[in-house]
Batch of 2 targets.
Target 1
Amino acid sequence: MTDRYSSYNERLDDLRASGVERTLPDLDLAGKWVRHEGRTLLNLSGNGYLGLSDTSELREGFDPWSRQWTSASSRLLTGNDKAYRDFEDLLVSAYGAESALVWDSGYHANSGLIPVLADTDTLIVADRLIHASIIDGIRLSKAEFTRFRHNDIGHLRSILAEKAHSYAKVWIITEALFSMDGDIAPLREIAKIKREYPNAFLYVDEAHSVGVFGDRGLGLSAREEILDDVDVLVGTLGKALGAVGAYSLQKKVLRSLIVSTARPFIYSTALPPITVAWAAHLFRKMMEMDDKRKHLYHLMSYMGVRLGMTVYSQIIPIIIPGNEACAKAAEHLTDLGFYVRPIRKPTVPEGQERLRLSLSADMTIDELSTICDHLLFLRGGLSPIRLIP
Ligand code: PMP
């Protein structure tokens, strides 16, 4: 008799053999530190860019006991607590948007929104490096899909010139700050191109830029003053803010369509009111954290100078081609007291394997100075480590 599970075992063996099996690390989180295998390490692998720890200062002004802690159901049934409405009102007034919608995750926002926006008469033109959740949203839609080379405005322009007239709608999709490369989309130029096409719309995922860039930390579309050109903006609450969930900003007509037809929105349990109220509380505080943002910018410039590379943001990719070499370098840094994870194929293309260093506002120059020493030593001592120039 054949083993019922043999095909699953074979598949897992294949993943293992090609070095792309993923496993969950055992960690305890403690602010900017993680405890891992009995050691305390500086966490350079998270997305908590503002370095918010659960301190009494952060809790000030938040009364958890006045909130419901348990979840109810989808927002369309009984989940739509006042906490949602209050948060959405706050987002509308912060951004000057027509409407806001809070989601349970950025993954659900991207995979739920795009099928609502794009139908068979739609062409989606997206940056080559967009996040998996956007790709899944595109796959679930019935739209035609093509990609432009990463941050290549000329390529975007030529695709639109060739194809835009054949479709009723064209959605241009980009991240504002790219999660694996740490570089920034040329948002002003993209907005300008969009304005040239009466059937074009612009979708910007600000997952990694909210909290870090722009007036009050509202992100890069705010910094570049193109909010009026962005038809859908997605921000996430689980990164700089250290909460969970996401929000989208859009015209009221789109919000009504989303509420009526976005499957992940309709068919999933709403976050409990306490979670939403806490995220709103953090968002309110985040808008006042200019000091933390300033310190983070200081850390970014320090890293650029020390490593001799262009640092665009708090995410710094150190390219180490090859899954094995990259894993080895990460292990080495872990031995030295830094929690750095290798980002390997298939998350990034082959040859682009990397250490993704992620800075947060609670780090100090001294701590970063030490990791720079080690990285520079690695560059000198281990080939083929290569820092992006
Ligand atoms: N967009 C981007 C660019 C992301 O990096 C992520 C998370 N890694 C998401 C969306 C998904 O957000 P969430 O974690 O809230 O599901």
Target 2
Amino acid sequence: MAEETPDLRGFPKADAYAALAERVDLVLEGTRDEIAAMATIATLVHHGFGHLWTGFYRVVDSGRQLRIGPYQGALGCLEIAVGRGVCGTAAAECRTVIVPDVAAFPGHITCDARARSEIVVPVFDAAGTLRAVFDVDSELVDAFDEDDRRGLERVLTWFARTGDAQ
Ligand code: SME
């Protein structure tokens, strides 16, 4: 199967995310594997929107630590403690965190110095357990808003609907 990676730039965000959700379900049809889903979603979001860094941090070590998962972009930090940085804050509080200006977020962890704004969305399985966070970085200040939160949270429901939590 060779599905295309559509360019979602230039569409209203709501339309872009609707197309993304459709494409994710299409590409992942027939699999319940979480890592396959993470790789697919990171690729479609990253190239679809032209972000700086896009990827997953998986919850490990009995919920104390985040460890890098599938991603697109420059090398990411391998481990982040839950509670630290934007990713660790989203994980600790189990909520989406939007940071319009990373310079103004105390404790922001810099992996790529070009990052200016960031959104981190929690990923839950069918039991409601936090499995990972999905982190997207932009070179633009204030790149993410409520449309991004809604759109990404919707796409990430794949893990609760279909994912095969081990
Ligand atoms: N900025 C994140 C760290 C991960 S990198 O951006 C890929 C944070 O503060 O948690």
